[in-house]
Write a structure and sequence with these properties.
Length: 373
């Protein structure tokens, strides 16, 4: 077993979850919009300070649903501008709907799409823009929102990493017409498996509710296509019991991330990518970039850390456009020099709420030892 994992799920005290399970057992209501499900939607909307939250079975299902509602009629050749620097699910949500990803590069010095390149890539085939707030970072998202509003193109944000992140006094997850969160166990707030869509009108929230439940209005009335993408009561109850504890998780991660930044500051060739001094940042991940002046490459550092029991991850390497299925579908067009460079240098270090500053010291000492200092 590695000594340190890139992430570990936050958990509520077990007896609080067991109490919730007792309620589920006595109600014998396991899914299809049960009491915990309804409670979690309301409590998340209040916590995130957003109008509507609709729960889903995964972040991928949430993102797919948001795209589907934003684009009810999809024709062959319809394009969505998006980033190659992301988890594969961003692209898979488009492919699943028959949408063509139109990849553009990230901005200089950023992990997110370049708004200027997004604008330049808009054609008469563009149906939507799908930015990712990578690692919970919000740069560029307000500009992309403005471009979408100006050109009348819906923006659907892959906010999988953005739980708890705030920018300019608002939740990052309030960006776009829809923003899809992942509530997977590797995320800082989670329901084991799960996802959520933030929306801004009752009409959109209703459309999402219908879509995840086979398109049902009622048993005799199914006006639109739908699917089964519902969250169960077991997951929703985990979310309801975890939510009151998540402020502490955010505080711990902030403290640990700042400790990392202090300890890594004088390590040549290592740059912390996350804005750890920004109180609005959620510290969902601790990405570093390994520069050409480092004594070893990113891959050598990654392997050596793994051998020493520090399980870091190369989120996000390779680029989505380098995956075989994307090339086979003929979707890998374009050159993305900034994204490619970052994907070759990035490493996400362990960051989760069970760690202590002494653990960060051990991890940084291992990095220093590998880099020969
Ligand atoms: N968009 C973006 C930008 C995303 O990053 C993601 C998902 C999505 C969309 C789609 O959301 P979901 O449909 O997944 O809700 C993970 C996650 O499975 C995935 O949710 C996440 N992004 C992606 C970046 O990473 P893996 O393959 O790295 O997970 P795994 O199993 O290697 O676990 C990572 C670490 O966490 C390990 O060190 C072990 C530890 N771990 C993991 C689990 C599941 C635990 O300690 N306990 C656990 O229960 O994919």
């Amino acid at each position: 077993m590695p000594r340190y994992l890139v992430s570990r799920p936050a958990l509520p005290p077990l007896d609080e979850y067991v109490d919730a399970l007792r309620d589920i057992w006595s109600a014998r209501w396991l899914t299809n919009g049960g009491a915990f499900h309804e409670r979690l939607e309301a409590e998340l909307a209040a916590w995130l300070d957003v109008p509507f939250v609709s729960l889903f079975s995964s972040g991928t299902a949430a993102l797919t649903a948001a795209l589907r509602i934003a684009l009810p009629r999809i024709a062959p050749g319809d394009e969505v501008i998006t980033t190659p620097y992301t988890f594969v699910a961003t692209t898979q949500s488009l492919v699943a709907l028959g949408l063509r990803p139109r990849f553009v590069d990230i901005a200089d010095g950023s992990v997110n799409l370049d708004p200027a390149l997004v604008r330049a890539a808009v054609t008469d085939r563009t149906r939507a823009i799908l930015p990712v707030t990578c690692y919970g970072m919000a740069d560029g998202i307000a500009d992309i929102d403005r471009i979408g509003a100006e050109l009348g193109i819906p923006v659907v944000v892959d906010a999988a990493h953005a739980f708890g992140a705030r920018t300019e006094g608002r939740s990052v997850a309030s960006s776009g017409r829809f923003a899809a969160l992942s509530l997977h166990a590797t995320k800082l707030f989670h329901t084991a498996e799960g996802g959520a869509v933030v929306s801004h009108t009752a009409e959109d929230a209703d459309a999402l509710r219908r879509y995840r439940n086979f398109g049902y209005v009622d048993e005799e009335d199914i006006p639109e296509h739908g699917t089964n993408a519902k969250m169960s009561e077991l997951s929703a109850a985990l979310g309801v019991t975890l939510l009151p504890h998540i402020g502490r998780e955010l505080d711990t991660r902030r403290r640990l991330a700042r400790h990392y930044a202090r300890r890594l500051a004088d390590v040549p060739g290592v740059q912390v990518l996350a804005p750890v001094q920004d109180d609005g940042h959620n510290n969902a991940y601790l990405p570093i970039a390994v520069g050409p002046d480092a004594a070893v490459s990113r891959d050598e550092l990654y392997r050596a850390l793994t051998e020493r029991g520090v399980f870091a991850r190369r989120y996000f390497y390779p680029l989505v456009t380098d995956f075989e299925f994307v090339r086979d579908l003929g979707l890998a067009e374009g050159e993305f020099p900034r994204a490619r460079d970052l994907a070759s240098r990035v490493l996400c270090l362990p960051l989760e709420g069970t760690l202590e500053t002494a653990d960060i010291d051990v991890i940084v000492d291992e990095i220093r030892a590998i880099l020969g200092r």
